[in-house]
């Protein structure tokens, strides 16, 4: 229900009666931008939204059965909703917003379902129906109270049921397009790309001509400006309770919120208002605190969840951007090792990536090759992969080495990477193709088929199998032939060299990998089962070696 | 299938072709009717297994040659099922615990417990006192050097516990990867590779039995390229016969595919030293790995081939680097990293050498 209260407050601010409700509101609502000029969003984006409205609403050009749909995507706090509201207000467009019914209706519905004995699907139906009713009636009928001849329907909360059944949602959109009378705007917060992809797959976007405007995190300069404006305004309004924030605090707020304006304003309010005195003091205590320190300090009080996509973190490590200036000068004989500090702390990058060490190293290793400028740097970098693996395998009960292994790899890599001159690498990263599980399965198969001929894989693979393949003894079973064909001809086989690229927003689901592996394994087991059937027969007739 | 390798494998200690002294010594060992734990080590194809089987035959009689394949299932503590296949007779059981990867500890513990707890009925049924002493089963564990640390420690404990009812014969290529605690509990038996002339002798013997006309040059050549691996030599002989018979003296010896592939890879490395080439080489290494060629073998072969084409002045350095990476490979878990690391290092050193050489000429 938060949305409703928020909406109401916004209306209140529209009447610009700040004094009346000064204490009750959070800064986000009190200092919400009232005009286009004050929006911290990039101008181009606002223009894009405006022009879409101009095309689709003002001119009312869309014919029947072609209600336009606009999709706004972007990370939290990038100003999607605010821009929309401001633009709508500017153009005198009325917004009707869908609010998810958590009210008595569904409660009683559930209750009655209980009473009637297990018609569990009733409440679900009601939400979907409710939703459909809303979007159709909302588009058709004017409000009784307002003159809202120009209106749009805003959909910010998509009923969760649609996430499970995206087809139903697509159907709803299709019907809306056919019967709706006014534009539909959908705002989707981009937590992970899978949601956008699920609800709006490319074919649906094309079919329904959904126009997509994607918002980026707000740039730090704009963020700075917005925050300063708010501070000025707040110092006028708030009076006694207000403590003027230090520059370092402002800086740290901007740093830690990563383009999330909402979060930034929240942090600012916490820092400036009386309740957060302690924090301000804490900041003051170490005036010499470097940028990083203050960053760490504010991260503690609710900075943004800053996880990275694998694609980005690979880039951060492999491009290993450095500052312009060298901080620590080295003596002459060590000049060779002098580097400016890196822009990223590798451990942080890894931590924010949320993948396993194993996968991350494999991805790095697979893609680092494209970044080696010379053989020398290649050998230095490769050495650190080797060292990292070595550290990783050293068993250590205290677990200290665990985190060290990846650290060794990344830092060694970043230190030794030299950019190839005049050669730019375009951002494709590829998944490693080598599938250890598959190899293990093959090894097991080999061992099973040729158990009588030797019990070590090394022995079998190194000489027995290749020569058996040439000698072609007449009494090989089909299974043995299959195995031979699979593992003897190294030269002729073309390994599947097509490497799968990972795209920018791939969320790497390691479970997925495991799942694929498991199905492989199951297939392997099936093979084993048939083989073991054969083995049982073996057991009956004993094999005499004489 | 009766490959020559199997057909002409000596079955008795007396019939062994080389290391005769060791054979008689082994005979003396089992004469008393008992056996300590053994650790048999030596290079591939030297005849470790042949000697073990002959010893067992000496001990138990020809019953050890009646082999059967069995499927054993174990359950780990986390209720995961592990299957492993064993080769066994009434008197012994042969198993390669590294088949199950990191679960090898469970296999060692459970398998040995099962075996040790059941009496060997075939032997106890005999009334003879001397025979009764043999109331133990023999467990042959192959590739002990590939056992995980965990498994090796489990093994050490089990060895002491079940000494009463079972004897272990551990087989490996090198004892360096076996923990000292195990080494000290076993009687070590080293089986060195046969000399080149011994191999030639055996090849001639087989050729005579098969009534083949084997030119001595070819026999020499086979013995040369087998590098002391008798099994490989005999397989080569048979492969040569399949390819071309009657033999000619200058006939090419057939090498396994992977060896040729590694040779080609080494040539590629010599030809060009660029990051792009490194990438290609890595693809090739992956190719080898996915064809099950053990990383250890790739490493050795690659180093050999590279050294053939390397100037003496940097050989020492290359070998030192190779030793370092090989060592790390054993301790680590991703062989490709170390292989690639070595190749990159080689490229860098080779490049440097070439630049220096060019500078000297100028």
**Terminal residue distance of chain B:** 63 Å
The second-level CATH architecture of the largest domain in chain B is: 3-Layer(aba) Sandwich
Radius of gyration of chain B, Cα only, in angstroms? 24 Å
Kindly provide the name of the CATH class of the largest domain in chain A.
Alpha Beta
Radius of gyration of chain A: 31 Å
Quick take:
The complex is a heterodimer of chains A (546) and B (362). With 546 residues, chain A is mainly alpha-helical.
Jot down its keywords.
heterodimer, A: 546 residues, mainly alpha, Rossmann fold, 4 domains, five-stranded parallel β-sheet, two-stranded antiparallel sheet, 24 helices, 6% strand, disordered N terminus, disordered C terminus, B: 362 residues, alpha/beta, Zinc Finger, Delta Prime, domain 3, 3 domains, seven-stranded mixed β-sheet, 16 helices, DNA_pol3_clamp-load_cplx_C (chain B), DNA clamp loader activity (chain B), Replication factor C subunit 3 (chain B)
Describe this structure in words.
The complex is a heterodimer of chains A (546) and B (362). With 546 residues, chain A is mainly alpha-helical. Helix content of chain A is 56%, strand content 6%. Chain A contains 24 helices and eight strands. Chain A has helices at 2-14, 27-30, 43-58, 80-90, 104-116, 121-140, 161-164, 166-179, 193-199, 202-208, 220-238, 247-257, 261-272, 277-285, 291-300, 310-319, 346-353, 357-368, 375-393, 400-416, 436-449, 457-471, 478-487, 510-540; strands at residues 69-74, 94-97, 151-155, 184-189, 211-214, 429-430, 501-502, 543-544. In chain A, the strands form two sheets. A five-stranded parallel β-sheet of chain A has the order 2-3-4-1-5, sandwiched between helices. A two-stranded antiparallel ribbon of chain A has the order 6-7. In chain A, helix 16 (310-319) crosses helix 18. Chain B is of the alpha/beta class and 362 residues long. Chain B folds into three domains: 4-190, P-loop containing nucleotide triphosphate hydrolases (Rossmann fold, 3-Layer(aba) Sandwich), CATH 3.40.50; 196-243; 257-357, Zinc Finger, Delta Prime, domain 3. Chain B has a seven-stranded mixed β-sheet, sandwiched between helices. Chains A and B meet through helix 18, helix 19, helix 21, helix 22 and helix 24 of A and strand 2, strand 3, helix 11, helix 12 and helix 13 of B.
């Amino acid at each position: 229900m938060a949305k409703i209260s928020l909406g109401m407050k916004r209306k209140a601010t529209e009447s610009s009666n700040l004094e009346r409700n000064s204490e009750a509101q959070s800064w986000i609502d009190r200092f919400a931008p009232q005009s286009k000029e004050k929006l911290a969003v990039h101008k181009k984006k606002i223009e894009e939204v405006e022009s879409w409205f101009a095309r689709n609403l003002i001119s009312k050009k869309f014919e029947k059965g072609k209600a336009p749909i606009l999709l706004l995507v972007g990370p939290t706090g990038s100003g999607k909703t605010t821009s929309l509201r401001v633009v709508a207000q500017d153009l005198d467009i009325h917004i009707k917003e869908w609010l998810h019914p958590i009210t008595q209706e569904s409660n009683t519905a559930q209750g009655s379902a209980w009473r009637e004995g297990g018609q569990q699907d009733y409440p679900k139906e009601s939400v979907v129906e409710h939703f459909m009713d809303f979007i159709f009636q909302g588009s058709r009928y004017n409000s009784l109270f307002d003159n809202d001849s120009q209106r749009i329907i805003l959909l910010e909360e998509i009923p969760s049921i649609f996430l499970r059944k995206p087809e139903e949602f697509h159907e709803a959109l299709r019907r809306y397009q056919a019967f709706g009378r006014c534009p539909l705007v959908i705002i989707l917060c981009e937590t992970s790309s899978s949601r956008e992809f699920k609800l709006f797959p490319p074919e649906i976007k094309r079919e329904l001509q959904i126009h997509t405007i994607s918002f980026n995190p707000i740039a730090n300069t704009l963020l700075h400006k917005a925050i300063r404006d708010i501070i000025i305004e707040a110092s006028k309004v708030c009076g006694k309770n207000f403590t003027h924030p230090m520059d370092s605090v402002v800086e740290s707020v901007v740093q830690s919120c990563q383009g999330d304006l909402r979060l930034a304003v929240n942090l600012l309010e916490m820092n400036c208002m009386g309740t957060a005195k302690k924090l301000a003091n804490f900041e003051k205590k170490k005036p010499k605190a470097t940028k990083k320190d203050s960053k760490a300090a504010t991260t503690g009080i609710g900075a943004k969840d800053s996880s990275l996509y694998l694609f980005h973190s690979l880039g951060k490590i492999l491009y290993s951007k450095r500052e312009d200036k060298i901080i620590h000068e080295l003596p002459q004989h060590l000049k060779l090792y002098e580097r400016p500090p890196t822009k990223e702390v590798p451990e942080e990058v890894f931590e924010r990536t949320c993948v396993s060490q194993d996968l991350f190293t494999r991805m790095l290793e697979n893609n680092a090759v494209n970044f080696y400028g010379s053989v020398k740097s290649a050998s230095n970098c490769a050495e650190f992969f080797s060292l990292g693996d070595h550290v990783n395998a050293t068993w250590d009960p205290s677990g200290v080495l665990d985190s060290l292994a990846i650290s060794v790899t990344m830092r060694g890599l970043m230190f030794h990477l030299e950019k190839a001159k005049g050669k730019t690498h375009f951002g494709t990263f590829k998944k490693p193709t080598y599938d250890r599980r598959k190899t293990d399965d093959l090894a097991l198969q080999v061992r099973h088929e040729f158990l009588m001929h030797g019990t070590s894989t090394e022995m079998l693979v190194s000489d027995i199998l290749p020569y058996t393949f040439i000698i072609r003894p007449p009494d090989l079973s089909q299974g043995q032939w299959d195995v031979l064909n699979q593992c003897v001809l190294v030269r002729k086989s073309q390994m599947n060299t097509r490497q799968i690229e990972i795209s920018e927003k791939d969320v790497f689901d390691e479970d997925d990998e495991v799942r694929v592996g498991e199905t492989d394994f199951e297939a392997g087991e099936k093979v084993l089962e048939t083989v073991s059937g054969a083995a049982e027969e073996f057991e009956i007739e004993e094999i005499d070696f004489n | 299938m009766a490959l020559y390798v199997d057909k002409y494998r000596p079955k008795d200690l007396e019939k062994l072709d080389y290391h005769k002294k060791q054979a008689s010594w082994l005979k003396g060992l089992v004469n008393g009717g008992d056996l300590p734990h053994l650790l048999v080590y030596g290079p591939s194809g030297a005849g470790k297994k042949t000697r073990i089987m002959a010893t067992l035959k000496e001990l138990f009689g020809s019953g050890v040659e009646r082999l059967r394949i069995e499927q054993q299932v174990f359950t780990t503590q986390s209720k995961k099922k592990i299957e492993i296949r064993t080769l066994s007779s009434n008197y012994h059981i042969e198993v390669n615990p590294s088949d199950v990867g990191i679960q090898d500890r469970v296999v060692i513990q459970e398998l040995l417990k099962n075996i040790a707890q059941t009496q060997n009925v075939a032997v106890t049924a005999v009334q003879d006192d001397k025979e009764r002493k043999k109331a133990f089963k023999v467990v042959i564990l192959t590739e002990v050097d590939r056992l995980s640390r965990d498994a090796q420690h489990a093994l050490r404990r089990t060895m002491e516990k079940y000494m009463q009812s079972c004897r272990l014969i551990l087989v490996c290529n090198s004892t360096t990867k076996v923990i000292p605690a195990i080494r000290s509990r076993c009687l070590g038996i080293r089986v060195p590779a046969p000399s080149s002339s011994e191999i030639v002798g055996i090849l001639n013997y087989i050729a005579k039995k098969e009534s083949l006309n084997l030119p001595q040059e070819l026999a020499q050549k086979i013995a040369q390229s087998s590098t002391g691996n008798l099994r490989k030599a005999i397989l080569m002989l048979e492969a040569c016969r399949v390819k071309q018979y009657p033999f000619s003296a200058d006939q090419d010896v057939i090498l396994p595919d992977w060896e040729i592939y590694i040779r080609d890879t080494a040539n590629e490395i010599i030809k060009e030293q660029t990051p792009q080439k490194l990438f290609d080489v890595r693809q090739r290494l992956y190719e080898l790995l996915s064809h099950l060629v053990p990383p250890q073998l790739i490493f050795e072969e690659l180093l050999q081939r590279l050294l053939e084409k390397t100037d003496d002045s940097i050989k020492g350095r290359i070998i030192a680097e190779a030793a370092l990476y090989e060592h790390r490979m054993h301790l680590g878990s991703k062989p490709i990293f170390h292989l690639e690391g070595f190749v990159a290092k080689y490229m860098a050193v080779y490049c440097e050498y070439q630049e220096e050489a060019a500078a000297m000429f100028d």
